[in-house]
Amino acid sequence: MPYDAHTSVADLRRAFHRHPEPGWREFRTTARVVEELESLDVDDIAIGREALAPDKRMAVPSAAELEPWLEQARGAGVRSDLLDRMEGGYTGVVAVLEQGPGPTVGLRVDLDGISMAESSDDDHRPTAEGFQSEHEGYMHACGHDAHIAIALGTIDAVRNSDFSGTLKVFFQPAEEISGGGKAMAEGGYADDLEYLFALHIGLDHPTGEIVAGIEKPLAMAHLTATFEGASAHAGKAPNEGGNAMQAAATAIQNAYGIPRHSDGMTRVNVGRIKGGTASNVIAEEITIEAEVRGETTGLMEYMRTELERVCYAAAEMHDCDVTPRVISESPRADSDPALRELVGSVARNVQGVHQVTETTDFGVSEDVTYLMERVQAGGGLASYVLVGTDHPTNHHTPTFDVDDESLEIGVAVLSNAIRACSSQRP
Amino acid sequence: MPYDAHTSVADLRRAFHRHPEPGWREFRTTARVVEELESLDVDDIAIGREALAPDKRMAVPSAAELEPWLEQARGAGVRSDLLDRMEGGYTGVVAVLEQGPGPTVGLRVDLDGISMAESSDDDHRPTAEGFQSEHEGYMHACGHDAHIAIALGTIDAVRNSDFSGTLKVFFQPAEEISGGGKAMAEGGYADDLEYLFALHIGLDHPTGEIVAGIEKPLAMAHLTATFEGASAHAGKAPNEGGNAMQAAATAIQNAYGIPRHSDGMTRVNVGRIKGGTASNVIAEEITIEAEVRGETTGLMEYMRTELERVCYAAAEMHDCDVTPRVISESPRADSDPALRELVGSVARNVQGVHQVTETTDFGVSEDVTYLMERVQAGGGLASYVLVGTDHPTNHHTPTFDVDDESLEIGVAVLSNAIRACSSQRP
Amino acid sequence: MPYDAHTSVADLRRAFHRHPEPGWREFRTTARVVEELESLDVDDIAIGREALAPDKRMAVPSAAELEPWLEQARGAGVRSDLLDRMEGGYTGVVAVLEQGPGPTVGLRVDLDGISMAESSDDDHRPTAEGFQSEHEGYMHACGHDAHIAIALGTIDAVRNSDFSGTLKVFFQPAEEISGGGKAMAEGGYADDLEYLFALHIGLDHPTGEIVAGIEKPLAMAHLTATFEGASAHAGKAPNEGGNAMQAAATAIQNAYGIPRHSDGMTRVNVGRIKGGTASNVIAEEITIEAEVRGETTGLMEYMRTELERVCYAAAEMHDCDVTPRVISESPRADSDPALRELVGSVARNVQGVHQVTETTDFGVSEDVTYLMERVQAGGGLASYVLVGTDHPTNHHTPTFDVDDESLEIGVAVLSNAIRACSSQRP
Amino acid sequence: MPYDAHTSVADLRRAFHRHPEPGWREFRTTARVVEELESLDVDDIAIGREALAPDKRMAVPSAAELEPWLEQARGAGVRSDLLDRMEGGYTGVVAVLEQGPGPTVGLRVDLDGISMAESSDDDHRPTAEGFQSEHEGYMHACGHDAHIAIALGTIDAVRNSDFSGTLKVFFQPAEEISGGGKAMAEGGYADDLEYLFALHIGLDHPTGEIVAGIEKPLAMAHLTATFEGASAHAGKAPNEGGNAMQAAATAIQNAYGIPRHSDGMTRVNVGRIKGGTASNVIAEEITIEAEVRGETTGLMEYMRTELERVCYAAAEMHDCDVTPRVISESPRADSDPALRELVGSVARNVQGVHQVTETTDFGVSEDVTYLMERVQAGGGLASYVLVGTDHPTNHHTPTFDVDDESLEIGVAVLSNAIRACSSQRP
To answer: Which of A295, A330, A365 delimits the end of a domain?
Structure first.
């Protein structure tokens, strides 16, 4: 069921696959989504600042990091009127389809690719069939290209269906860096949602399987901390200055030692470090990048607070300053059983679906939880639906790919679930 | 040259060797010194509180630790009138010999033994000749017994000489734990000293060698720190409480990492640790005992300040409290070249002296430096004289012993040096 | 339903409450159990070595620690023939009741008290009613006294019932230190069990509630590690020797940093530390006591292996030796759903039972898992039954107590469950 | 006394000041030295491989780092015949002046600048007078430009003097990174030296002061260590892989904790660190750059060995690999008193010299010690001469400069010292 005469959902996904853009730099992707929405004749298209709470964006790159991607989009002939509205990294779209009285239903997908070079191997289908990434060093290796295509296909399907109500589709930027979820959740469009569907493809589930609602995404926070001391000559004046290297090492050792929590699973990692100038100079500045996670938002906050305490004390110990900064964060939110049930019963009737799984544990983090949390706080229901796809290798690997067949299944499940919402209403 | 008709200096030293007592518990030793002084008919004998600044004592044992030693002395028939004046650990004596107009000259020796079982080996002379320690687990293994005997012999020699002036001899308690030096320096008797001699025997120099004045005793501070957190069940509530074990481990690691100092040599050690209740309980309380040293008093203070900072920050990191306490401390003070010269020229004329060494580096710590510092601050001169002795094994070993011959040499060098002071005067 | 004419289960529990004895030192307790069993006329009574695999005992105290407890029992008039059989810390009993053809059913309870002074508060019922601990500093603060009494009551009830088969009751020593479970599991008596019931009282469940089978006791290992370096004078030779203090601190810091595991919950704690001789001596020997736990036996083993690796590397880093030793250990074992169901259906018909809970998570460790594991490995079924009791304060607190009423309920539930086993048989 | 008619030593120093080049990249500097030597008509000029033991070079940059500097020299019109001989970073020159029978005397100076942007402040004389660095980000901020000019002036002065013997002047590359000293010491030219003078300017001594021979340069080693573990997803699989971040933090903490040494001063510093890919990935690779120093070569080797041990154990603890690599190293060597005396007596007769200081402690490191050590091992004498200069700010600061007057003084002192060597000969 192609969403229009000349473009199948699979073709559309291939188009997006060619131009992966990292978080807050989805200029070309956003513009293409807008053009597709225009051709679908939706009722409202909010772009960038209109779609987001501008001051709630997290993990926004510097102007110097944004610029080349904007230029690249401009160079590729992307419409200036659209790019102008995205300047400063205000990517992302919300599309609204108004179709009579009935519930307001949301669907959220994500736009960004990741910084990983795509495989040029002949066995890799995107390479073999000529739709591999044209942005060197970047790739849609997590299926967000498929998510976008399914969302567009779903809009088309709903538009042509008996759905009565309002559909809002959130094309969220910067999911990989947990940067866009909060801004989209607080941008206004989510305020009146009675139902929210989120979508992920694959995750080791094959084509034909649907998971009606994922549970237990971990709450997460990503932090950086720069220890600032004072340099001195390590031979002549080892006692002078403040040794940022010792402060950072002490902080790292103790970060991993933050106690396990009796209420459930926690995580901590210091994944990057950089600093110092030369072996014979007491290091003046060391920056670490860390993350903490928790099975609940509270557990994540416990870890974050402890990590901050560790950093402050380590700095004090070595006469340094530090201000840990939260770069991005996402809470935990679970799928509502009632909405999971609706998805399950709809999915069982979709052609190509062989197995419907009620729920699975997610085990990692996703900032769609900000949207889910907001909807649930307002009394609405949310479910994070998994559409199985045969993927040759793991997500976030250079040979990741998806199965075309699963895309149509995704459109069918989601559009039927959305339609079912309108008949749920009392 | 025995100091009186019936007791040689060597015999006297053997008497003291039999009854080693640890710091602030030199009850029997003090009483015996007083009795010897009485028989020497000195002009003033100040005991305990009279000889010391009572509130400047450091590293004073608890009442429970003092009591058994007081009882033991009482049980051995030591005079009650003397013991009563020492109650509470106020040991130590200052003897004053007034012998006409002239300079006020000081001599300082130390009284305490150490907690080490003396060798019962037949090759060990004190055992073979029957004067080994009668206090099990304690021993005069650093030669303080010899120091006392030499001091008494010196008083006798000076008394019978042409010395004109005042001689004050300080029998200081608690040298091994750096506890008595400050109290004696500030007890009043040192205020008018124009010259001060301190004495140590041995230190790897043989009988017949005199070192006119030792240099560079290290400044030292001995600290304890108790990390107090809150216990919790390690299985059920690992996140609760405050983990004193983690705080202590962090402090220890960082204590050893206190930077070397460009101004000179420093030392740090955490030598003892104890705490916690069971493997399945988050440790509530851990106590460490540490020391720092420095080539100068300033360097020691740098180390002490940094160690305290490390402890405070480590406690804060793990939600514990800590108050590092300085148990004892000693500054650095060096021998004055002018007085070294006087000692050297005197020593060269003493029978049995084969070698006079101008100076050597001490390398460890001694709280006589408080007295030296006080004398030097008042414009006086001080020298820390080393009297060589053939000792079979190192100081602080169970088979340490001294050579009788060196005792007479010590008396001759010191009494002649004291006499020389009176002729120095303009 | 008192188990004999003159002694109620509650009275019996009070008798045991008076004489708490720690692990492997339950001399008086064992003897009293034996006497009760004799009066109950059971068919076989195995004591100490006969009841246990002698070489599988763990966490056995030293002779010096055992002796005073044996002497105390002797002094209290405990039968010599019994004490002689327990010499060396071979406490514990297995009682066998042979009652015709049918299944072999086991029941396991534990004997030891803990080292905690019992409250002398008037509000504390044992104190108010005069049955508080007569062993100063020790207390039955976890309900093992109740367990013993219920087990004896159960034997009496089964003996007088229609039960056909064999009942074996395991009175296990040293549960609190995870020392006796393995020895009892491998002592021979557990080899032919088709059913095994274990028992715990309280754990925050009120009188009238039964939990049919507890899940998820944590697997646990308790270890000690002694870091052995070489001492040296911290001022004169800081570079000599091997610093056991630094090795231990490094090990502790890194022990807490052992990574969380994706398969489930883990725990690590270093709960005690001791070592070193003086602040001015490089520490030659430091001993730590640690424990690790895991949601599964495999997770515990991961933690134990990592902890050992940390210790070895820390020792190597500081030129020390170390040999981590496992003092005691217990695996994870869960209650079988089929046996849980049997307990549940029996419990629902017991007077006084208001609520039957299918299962709960245990969250800590118990070495009954050795017995459960053995029975399950042989094809048998095991369930760890919780008998609710109103307890005024937490287990392991000085004011812990149990509700008399719950004791009779425990006897009824367990004896009826045991009877039900014989009718289960095909 | 300009060394030729049209160029003063000061002008020459300005010329070298304009083109600072870092270690092993002194292409233009080497070529200019060669051209000056040609005009001075010396007897032998050895360049690069001929002047050095090629396989003893240390801290050699990669081809990618060498290339731009070679290209820059080529672009500036430097003679190809010279550049070709230096390809691969074989910079450096030895000049030989044969002037009849007599001793073989060496003089060593260094060629490299440092990576520091020179001040563009109007108060900075090189800027004000137009001879500031033309290589952006690089500067002669330690006076090596002055050293070269003085050496060339000295050759000219000796050539025109009564000196009888052989003079060898070593223009050593890569002093700042301790890379060239060993290669030059072992290149053959130093084998027959009877006397060696090394030269440094400034170091807080004013114009008019000469230090006849510097003592106690610290022995030094510069190391890197890359901890290689295995990456894993920090949320999904924290227990997998080997955490290079934890290994590095453990190594750093323990590196600073390497015990002080009783034999003398030591130093340790970890000055740079870099590694890891993202906050949510267990770090696979972390590289640290460290240095150790010692008051003697033995003490440096103690520190290096301990640092290596720490790295290996830290890697093992966290299941990582590491191979610490020594990048460069220099021993300790002191000036010979006899040669110091010669320099002192010569210097006292040089116009402009107001003060001759016998010796001072250097306190940092210098790889000229390789040459000194070699000469001394062969029975020769070496002295490291300091020529005072008024320098407005510290060495290694952007406003460092030297006083022209001191350059002529340097030439006079060194050429007269060299002449004096020939008359020393018996």
So the answer is: A330
